[in-house]
Every structure is written in C-alpha cells, then in structure tokens.
C-alpha cells in the first residue's frame, strides 16, 4: 500500500486517540479540531469528570477539572445563593420613603451621601427585623442615635437608626419580624418628620459597603 493510501487511515487513528492521549491539555485553547476522513469533526471533550473515589473508606463526590470559559469548580457552584431579597419589612406596614438612598443636595447647596432610606412612621411604631440573623451592635452611635445592627447570612447587614427604645441585646439571634425597638428621633436625623433610618450593607474587602435598601425590600407586610 502506498504512502498516499496509508495517510488517511493514519490521520483518523491519531484523531480518535487525541482525547485519550491529551487529557492534560487545556482543551479550551485548542486551535484546530481533528476531522474524520469524511470531513466531520471529532467530538472534543469539553468537561472532564473523574469517577467516584474513596478516601479512608468513605465515598467522595466526583471531582471536576476547571477549564476557563467552559465549566466552574463544583465548590463555586455550591456557594451560589438563591437570594431574592429579605423575607420581611422593617415596619408593620409599607411606609413612604421621605429620603432615598444616594447623593442629595441640601438647602445650603452642599451635596451629601445618604447611606440608607428614611421611612416615614409615627413615633413609637415598632421596628422589626427584616430577616434572620445575629444582633451585632446595640447602643448609641453618633448621628445614628440609638442603633441596632444585625448581621445576616450571605455577608449582608441591616441597620436601624434613631430609635427611641431598643428591645434586643448584642449576640441575640432574631428571626423575621422580631421587634427590635421603636421609631424615635435620637441622634441627628436628616429630616424633621418622624421616621426610621434603614440601611443595608454588604461585607466587602474594603469594609461594610452601603447598598440601596429598596433593592432588598422585596417583601411586603
């Protein structure tokens, strides 16, 4: 048999053996796929999964090889949250937002950043936890006045400020709707009407960063 007759057969064998011989290749960077004699591409393995294996007699989950742009590590997938907002609302009924989150220009012409939302409410209205969590701080805190801070799952934190009375203690575990205190005017409120100053913060490498609370208040009483 001549060389020209052997070449198509040899090329097909090499292409079919590529997935076996090249398991350590970064398949995401392959430039030219192999083709069969008929011109159809040989399927390229895009995701590698090892079979179950045992360690000290216990069966382990399959381990995946990470290929950028193709799949994710299994651990990363397990860390994804199904979060669509807090389960509760900080007041017994939906309140008007008197001062929104973000930059505002005052009567003196100065621009300041408002790190939460001011929800209009009568004095002594109960203030409620919007989700389960642990009380991280209780007490007087500068312009906040009487402040309650709750740490929630997923690196989120809520703050309830200007309270007249506080009904919880540090380290206490709370659930949705737990009374935290009552609406007041302690500290230095940004507006005169009675209200609750409510904040949502996220734990980032640079600290607790304020976020727009309206994006998190999806539930209604």
Give a written overview of the molecule.
This protein has helices at residues 3-21, 74-78, and strands spanning 54-55, 58-59, 97-99, 102-105, 111-114, 117-120, 126-128, 133-140, 146-152, 156-166, 173-174, 179-183, 195-204, 207-211. By secondary structure, it is mostly beta strands. The strands form three sheets. Strands 3, 6, 7, 8, 9, 10, 11, 12, 13 and 14 form a ten-stranded antiparallel beta sheet that branches. The chain has a two-stranded antiparallel ribbon with strand order 1-2. It has a two-stranded antiparallel ribbon with strand order 4-5.
What fold name stands as the CATH topology of the largest domain?
Answer: Glucose Permease (Domain IIA)
What is the CATH architecture descriptor of the largest domain? Distorted Sandwich
The CATH superfamily name of the largest domain is Glucose Permease (Domain IIA)
Gyration radius from CA atoms, angstroms: 29 Å
Topology order in helix (H) and strand (E) letters: HEEHEEEEEEEEEEEE
Count of structural domains: 2
Q: How many distinct beta strands?
A: 14
Largest sheet: 10 strands, antiparallel
What is the average of the pLDDT values? 76
Helix content: 10-25%
Low-confidence stretches: 18-78
| Count of helix runs | 2
**Strand fraction band?**
25-35%
**Morphology:** globular
Structural class: mainly beta
The termini sit apart by: 84 Å
* CATH level 1 name of the largest domain: Mainly Beta
């Amino acid at each position: 048999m001549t060389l020209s007759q052997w070449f198509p057969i040899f090329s097909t064998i090499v292409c079919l053996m590529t997935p076996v011989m090249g398991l350590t290749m970064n398949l995401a960077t392959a430039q030219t796929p192999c083709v069969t004699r008929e011109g159809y591409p040989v399927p390229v393995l895009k995701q590698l999964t090892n079979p179950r294996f045992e360690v000290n007699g216990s069966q382990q989950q399959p381990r995946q090889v990470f290929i950028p742009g193709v799949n994710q590590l299994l651990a990363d997938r397990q860390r994804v949250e199904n979060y669509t907002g807090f389960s509760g609302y900080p007041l017994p009924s939906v309140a008007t937002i008197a001062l929104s989150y973000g930059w505002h220009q005052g009567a003196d012409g100065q621009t300041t950043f408002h790190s939460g939302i001011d929800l209009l409410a009568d004095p002594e209205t109960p203030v409620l936890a919007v989700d389960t969590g642990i009380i991280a701080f209780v007490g007087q805190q500068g312009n906040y006045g009487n402040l309650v801070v709750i740490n929630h799952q997923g690196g989120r934190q809520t703050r309830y400020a200007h309270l007249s009375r506080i009904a919880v203690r540090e380290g206490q575990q709370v659930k949705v709707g737990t009374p935290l205190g009552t609406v007041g005017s302690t500290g230095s409120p940004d507006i005169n009407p009675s209200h609750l100053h409510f904040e949502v913060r996220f734990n980032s490498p640079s600290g607790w960063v304020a976020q727009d609370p309206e994006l998190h208040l999806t539930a209604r009483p």
